[in-house]
Amino acid sequence: MGDYSQCIQYKYKNDFCIKCLQKDEDKKSLQQQLPRIAVLATGGTIAGETDPTELTGPYRSGVLSIEQLLAAVPMLSKVARIRAEQVANIDSKDMTIDLWGKLVIHANELLASPEVDGIVITHGTDTLEETAYFLNLLVKSKKPVVLTAAMRPATAVSADGPLNLLEAVVVAGSKASEEQGVLVVMNDEIFSAHDVTKMNTYSVGSFQASEFGALGWIHENQVHFERSLVGTHFNTTHSRFSIEKMCKLPQVEIAMSYAESSRTSIDAFVANGAKGIVIAGTGDGTLHKVLQQAAIDAVRQGVAIVRSYRVSYGHVSHEKLDDEADFLTAGTLNAWKARVLLMLILAEGINDHAERQYIFDHY
């Protein structure tokens, strides 16, 4: 019961004001109407800590707990009912496929519950786009799944994590976010997991979708979508992939083409048992002639080869060479996202070359 002693209608000792009591009950009723959001923490800069006596400098990722992150954003209680879990507390440069699998399984379990309306995952920025894309292909729910992070550690001057976390929860609790696929919320903007990539080493505006643009933005805790992915292949409810078939993802590596490339990397990957290799090519995914021959030889040994790009963004078109050499082309996917998709294709046992290319063209 609230403190009604100052209320002008509070007239009798040990009695209580009916109007004030009604207001108290209204607050409880409003609280019960807030969306129920599960926040899963995995560490990263958003949970990082730096020397408070230094203006800038090195810091340690994955130090603060999810309880500490939530405590820094008291406004969260006004936008959602939160249940929090510490899934991991690592620097995302050390992300593992095993942890990806655990996140997918747990996310699907939570989203199947009527007690959860959406999920927010806090993550490091280094591999966030890979995790988001993996989840986008394997999470099966219309309910929102939103990843967020920070470019500045939690103890830094003007840390960006608290606002990113608040806005991620707002987006996860919005009906407009349903059936949009896995989303990434950073710096007031909403991105598709398919489109977004980290473009800068330090800026709070590092995450961009240069080819397609943001899906929308958040302003004063209101969600605005300018573009919709409902009903597209970017909607996780339509993905053909299933976590039940992902017992062990095959080894897929990334090579890069550059001036006077050697074939050392591709030959080593093949010798080490790689089942697939994505090559980040120059320009339109072009390959140095030495690297190209190594890739052709790898295909002859049963290794899947995908041509992607090393530039910031664009589209790798399918050429005559690809048909002749049985190369796949990644379309708009960068090399690290193409690697994720190729791992899932191989894990599903999809061997038909045309079907593999169709998947790259549509996912």
TrEMBL record:
Name the domain of life this protein comes from: Eukaryota
Q: What is its EC number?
A: 3.5.1.1
Annotated substrate binding lies at: S92, T125, D126
The record places domain L-asparaginase N-terminal at 36-228
Known catalysed reaction(s)? L-asparagine + H2O = L-aspartate + NH4(+)
Q: Name one GO molecular function term.
A: asparaginase activity
Query: SUPFAM superfamilies given for it?
Result: Glutaminase/Asparaginase (SSF53774)
Q: Which InterPro entries match?
A: AsnASE_II, Asp/glu_Ase-like_sf, Asparaginase/glutaminase-like, Asparaginase/glutaminase_AS1, Asparaginase/glutaminase_AS2, Asparaginase_C, L-asparaginase_C, L-asparaginase_N
Hydrolase keyword on record: yes
Could you tell me the Gene Ontology terms of the biological process aspect for this record?
L-asparagine catabolic process
PROSITE patterns this protein is in? ASN_GLN_ASE_1 (PS00144), ASN_GLN_ASE_2 (PS00917), ASN_GLN_ASE_3 (PS51732)
- Quote the catalytic residue positions: T45, T125
Positions of the Asparaginase/glutaminase C-terminal domain: 251-359
Annotated keywords: Hydrolase
Which PANTHER family does the record associate with it? 60 KDA LYSOPHOSPHOLIPASE, L-ASPARAGINASE
Query: What family, per the record?
Result: Belongs to the asparaginase 1 family.
Question: NCBIfam families in the record, alphabetically?
Answer: asnASE_II (TIGR00520)
Name-wise, this protein is: asparaginase
Its source organism is Rotaria socialis
